[in-house]
From TrEMBL:
GO molecular function: hydrolase activity, hydrolyzing O-glycosyl compounds; polysaccharide binding
Domain CBM2 stretches: 183-306
SMART domains in the cross-refs: CBD_II (SM00637)
Gene Ontology BP term (one): carbohydrate metabolic process
Signal peptide segment: none
SUPFAM superfamilies associated with the record: Carbohydrate-binding domain
InterPro entries in alphabetical order: CBD2, CBM2/CBM3_carb-bd_dom_sf, CBM2_carb-bd_dom_sf
Protein name: Sugar-binding protein
Organism (species): Desulfosporosinus fructosivorans
Length: 321
């Protein structure tokens, strides 16, 4: 029998509580729309948990566990009277006071078993969906798969009570589409993927300030190259202090905003991003390295800046490969 070496805590927050199946209803009234008439729309967003939802879930190397849940736009006879779009954000992180289980992989799948998004170790990703206006209520089923690959060393390395991983799932709904499209729909794929990774922070012995290293990877999903690439984004609290190679840090103003340019090596592999290819750069930073970059735009000399970016974040990695 495999020895259980840590506890995995699952916490799901969907509006009030997806487990409790809390109903959220928004009513909007528009007066004098047509000679004093009033239009009211019921806006329903309900999340339901199942018996597979647990806290203090035990898992060991080579094991896989699954957890199912659903979202829907109705309760009993009440159905949304408008198109509804929703976004589920999965944040995989260490339990407070513990270290995360680095080999752990969290994957979200649809009802057909198709993987929509995943993260290994720690990080954040989103899954989006929609309910078009219809007379009958609708629902979407999801599966969260948590697996721990057995590499022969994990059992010993993560033994004891100092390790634990937690999954927080937040959900929001809207009458307009979210900027993040459904990762399961290739026809709506993002033009650019951006991955932001950080190492486990350490404390400077003299100043007491926490430091970490960061890495940014840009992948071109379009059919056109991105020549002389550039990227800009905001990082509210953590501070990127330098870049080691493969990019130039040309702006960190206003506070919290960073812009990087290609290194200008006159090398196609570093200065341009060909279709299907990636470039990476990184450097040192100050802070805990646990917040995501925001408001990202990627551009080039041959294309205008685009915000059509799919972001993945992984925090607290042992190393940046």
């Amino acid at each position: 029998m495999k020895r259980v070496v840590f506890f995995l805590t699952l916490v799901l927050i969907m509006l009030s509580s997806i487990v409790a199946g809390t109903l959220a209803m928004y009513t909007v009234s528009v007066d004098n729309l047509a000679e004093g008439s009033v239009v009211a729309k019921e806006f329903i967003f309900l999340g339901e948990g199942t018996d597979t939802f647990q806290q203090g879930l035990k898992i060991a190397p080579s094991e896989t566990t699954q957890w199912q849940f659903k979202v829907k736009n109705y309760e009993n006879n009440i159905v949304s009277e408008t198109d509804m779009y929703y976004k589920l954000t999965f944040n995989v992180q260490a339990v407070s006071g513990k270290k995360a289980i680095e080999p752990l992989k969290v994957t979200v799948k649809d009802s057909n078993g198709n993987a929509l998004n995943s993260v290994t170790g720690v990080g954040t990703f989103a899954v989006v969906g929609s309910f078009p206006l219809a007379v009958n209520g609708q629902e979407q089923n999801y599966l969260v798969e948590i697996s721990w690959p057995d590499d022969g060393t994990s059992d010993v390395k993560y033994a004891g009570g100092n390790y634990g991983t937690m999954i927080n799932v937040d959900a929001v709904a809207s009458q307009i589409p979210f900027s993040v499209v459904d990762p399961g729909d290739p026809s709506q794929g993002k033009q650019v993927d951006v991955r932001y990774e950080t190492t486990t922070p350490w404390q400077n012995g003299q100043s007491g300030i926490y430091q970490y290293n960061y890495k940014v990877t840009i992948t071109n999903n379009s059919s056109e190259p991105i020549n002389n690439w550039s990227i800009g984004f905001f990082l509210p609290t953590d501070k990127l202090t330098d870049v080691w190679s493969n990019a130039k840090l040309v702006s960190n103003s206003p506070p919290g905003y960073y812009k990087f340019l290609n290194p200008g090596y006159n090398n196609q592999a570093t200065d341009n991003i060909l279709p299907g290819q990636s470039v990476s750069f990184g450097g040192p930073a100050l802070g805990m390295g646990t917040e995501a970059i925001q408001t990202i735009s990627v551009g080039g000399s041959n294309i205008s800046d685009t915000t059509n970016v799919d972001l993945t974040c992984q925090f607290g990695k042992a190393s940046l490969n």
